[in-house]
Amino acid sequence: MNKLELMKTANEVRKDIVTAVYSAKSGHPGGSLSAADIYTYLFFEEMNVDPAEPKKADRDRFVLSKGHTAPGYYSALAERGFFPVEDLKTLRHVGSYLQGHPDMKHIPGVDMSSGSLGQGVSAAVGMAISAKLSGDDYRVYTLVGDGEIQEGQVWEAAMLAGFQKLDNLVFIIDNNNLQIDGPIDEVNSPYPIDKKFEAFNFHVINIDGHNFDEIDAAFKEAKATKGMPTAIIAKTVKGKGVSFMENQAGWHGKAPSEEEYKTAMADLEKVGEALCQK
Fold this sequence. Notes:
Keywords: Metal-binding, Thiamine pyrophosphate, Transferase. The chain is α/β, with parallel strands linked by helices. It has helices spanning 3-24, 29-34, 36-46, 70-80, 119-134, 152-163, 184-187, 193-199, 212-224, 258-276; strands spanning 61-64, 140-145, 169-175, 178-179, 182-183, 203-208, 230-235. Helix 9 (212-224) links the parallel strand 6 (203-208) and strand 7 (230-235). The longest helix is centred in the N-terminal third of the chain and has 22 residues, at 3-24.
């Protein structure tokens, strides 16, 4: 995909996120929207995955460590063809396979069940070690919340990843600076994030997480890095694309009303129309 196609796809992913959370009447839109460009790049450009064969042995693995942003994950998977986009409207409904957090047993394309913050990265490190032991060349990607890195288990996993020189592993930190209780630097500051990962023997790349040129360059640099894992710290905007959700901690875990849903979709339609004129 070229950059314009990625931008258009990411906008569709954002529409899907808003629709899914609105249909569920619950969920986590803020952090799903902030990571929409990352999800889009991973599943449409970076990762070796096949919707027709979601469990193929040589596929790249993805672990959503901040599992509550499943609406973004599901939307990218649906747009990529792993399951029907229409099914996103069943999010969190009784009987739906699209639970509030990723479920590897029932959702095509999901490699690891997650949701308890801090635990997903450990699973990703285990997958990367497994690939090394087996001589497999698949790569492992894990998306981590910037509030989530307040969890000690993240750093235990990072210490092992750095020590094991897992150059097949990429941590992506969605640095939108907001968690459920407010700005991360006011709740329990993890800054400077880059220096911390460097201390754990990671190759660190800082980017604008909404700029596809920077996203593309970062993942290419990660793939070229040998002898150490990579941490891509993506500076993002929580609620990106929806005017009244942007940079608002209150939209961490809340569904829009009917009127808010219409406003949000109108915002995203405008973005889509502007992209179509490029």
